[in-house]
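Sequence in, structure out. Go.
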Amino acid sequence: MNAAAVLRLADLEREPLAALLGRFGLELTAVPDGAPIPGSYWGGCEAGLRGARLFARADTPLHSLLHEAAHFICMDPARRALLDRDAGGDDPEEAAVCYLQVLLAAELAAGGGARLMADMDAWGYSFRLGSTRAWFEQDAADARAWLLARGLLSRDGRTSGALRQA
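Output:
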């Protein structure tokens, strides 16, 4: 698989994605083809965040949408209130964001977590063990612990549906 073959917003049913994001207070906002994506940190087709709005075009990859959604979920309320483009956070939070985006994908019918992990690899995400799957299955205890400690993950390994508080 190459980066051009990753799952994109155009490949998805919007209702399930919007419902998933809505559980966390995020509003999916479509951007016209070719237009700049507001709040995008990387530019191009990458998703953007401004407040509780997640911006995407038809060519925005699902992994980008879910990564930015996971940033929103993982940040504390003070950062969330000022959010415009740069989610901030430290390395442990970034690992938690990557872990959470896989869990979020598993809640969608469009390929689930396995497809998202393959897309993350194709896009160029880099993990110590060489692949997203290997990291997720064998080396992500710190990310799971981070999410558990903040109430974002249930003991059974599912998303709690909550936003990070303090």
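Check: The chain has seven helices and three strands. The helical segments are 14-22, 62-74, 77-81, 91-106, 112-123, 132-138, 141-149.
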